[in-house]
């Protein structure tokens, strides 16, 4: 090796060393304690009265006045739909997808607890235990406890025929499509005011094949096996295509189908099940982080702009916010669910 190359290499090493141990979080953030973090569990692990307490808290949010100031919002539940709608173009197929949604679900959990007296944690729905990967048309997954009409979120929408041009993505024909006729979120008890102008009922349009073949233990294992944050994020979301199975899309389009709220990219938080689907994705992310906390509580990556894999990547100090519902927050403050800006566990 030429002398100057050695010199350059050693000075590079020196500058790398001097740039090294910056504290990952500010002292203020580190000193903020997370005591007794709420422990999130799978929906089925809740007792009957805990399920009722959760659903009652969701209905309570719909009775509190909106604070976001976003046109069309009437209540606190609408606030969250509106913030997701407003940010939709830059929070999907990006490096910060999972962290933005972590922040979002945590803010919702906090609202349920602080504004509606809910004592528990945000539950999640682990669809991978319900699916029948070898029987794509099986409706078994929709018999899951989460869709129970007494103790769950109600089931499929009533069967309707699509209007011409209503299926722009050419999804398989769904099995429902209209308003959900049973459970706690029927139109007499629950409506989406946002985006308006007319309030809308909760619609679902189950597509069994998308849940059964996308929300599989095998695909979860594939996501969990990714070696770094960037590849994890990419495996989680897949491509902007309905041809490639991915565990994020399967929950949305399997439940929401062609006409349902869960299948509406902008307004999907209008179905209360959104938060259990996203809490499950967050649980998977948390599990992945636990496998190497040293590295994975300090690592982000992936594109700033949707699907821009050759462009700029997000970094630890990249800022996200929840509009009027949550201040600018660096990604590094969202990596640890029991530190920085967050306080919950699994
Ligand atoms: Cu989203």
UniProtKB/TrEMBL annotation:
Residues 92-109, 271-282 form the Tyrosinase copper-binding domain. InterPro entries: Di-copper_centre_dom_sf, Tyrosinase/Hemocyanin, Tyrosinase_Cu-bd. One of its GO terms (molecular function) is metal ion binding. Residues 1-19 form the signal peptide. Keywords: Copper, Metal-binding, Monooxygenase, Oxidoreductase, Signal. It comes from the Eukaryota. This is Monooxygenase. The lineage of its organism: Eukaryota, Fungi, Dikarya, Ascomycota, Pezizomycotina.
